[in-house]
Amino acid sequence: MLCAGIVGLPNVGKSTLFNALTESRRAMAANYRFCTIEPNQGLVSVPDERLAVLAKLSGTQKIIPSVFEFVDIAGLVRGASKGEGLGNQFLGHIREVDAIVQVVRCFENDDIEHVMDSVDPVRDIEVIETELILADLESIQKRRLRQQKAAKSGDKKIQAELDLLDRLEPHLSEGHHAFSLDTTPEEKALMRPLFLLTSKPTLFACNVAESDLANPDANPMVARVKELAARHRGCEVVVVSAEIEAELITLAPEDRTEYLAGLGVAEGGAGSLIKSAYQLLGLRTYLTTGEKETRAWTIQSGDKAPQAAAVIHSDFEKAFISAEVIAYQDLVDCGSFAKARSIGKLRTEGKEYVVEDGDVIDFKTFV
After folding, report:
1. Nearest CA among 197, 156, 237 for reference residue 5
2. How far is residue 142's CA from residue 119's CA, in Å, rounded to a whole number?
3. Model confidence over 166-177: pLDDT tens digits?
């Protein structure tokens, strides 16, 4: 299962946010540095309003959403790449995740210490990213030494990797991320086993105070993070209040909407963050619905119908015959499968069909 790692400086709200996202108290949240040592792992359900609509259409009570994993990783500090604050251990934890959610503090609170004694989210981002780049540079240099010896055998693949490393090192040294290097498909394949920290897709989660949740764009710190993300990173920014999300999980589901309305917002930021992380991991959802259950199934973007069928049961890929497919909105507009079939909206697709997010599918197999 793919996972997103929650990363940031100490005391920016990572563990509080992790507990809210996973609706647990698994991660210790305290006002001191390094209260998290070992990473905490937890599954999250992906909010999907389509499931309730399909369940009503099919007359079923059982709903099963998509899930994926978040990992709460201990805070990094300046010098982590050189071992500061148990940095090498924590950088190793980041290396094991598939995407990074970098939490940045965008609120003032004298009762919560900041590891750098002042609140500056852009500086905090640059500290984290500098440490990731320095760690990658060290990895590349060690890798080159090993491969230079192996290259004496004349192996073309090893030489191609060395050529890639020769391009990566100056790119990183200039402060760029590995993912921004212009690479061919073959070079991307060579980069994958390097497990570079800066090759991982990233989004920023701006942790704001309760008072900023209704109008986060009025917060100048959020505006600066959004500007940095758009100008230098090309990545998404999600605004969330870890404090509010921690309160919400103590309430009954039916009381949460009323609580948020009192703050002047329609919904909290946790749902948006979960959806964004899911997309960041390259994950997509197709749907099945019937009398027994309505369910969301997780696939990789670009998966074809047989691969999607294998998510239900591994034997379905080899036994695949065809798939009856309809877009979610088309089915809702028709009101039933029978109506959709009668007007040609329900179509039959074969092995080469690339499944789209929100497809409602019924697979036909030999099994």
Report:
1. 197
2. 36
3. 999 999 999 889
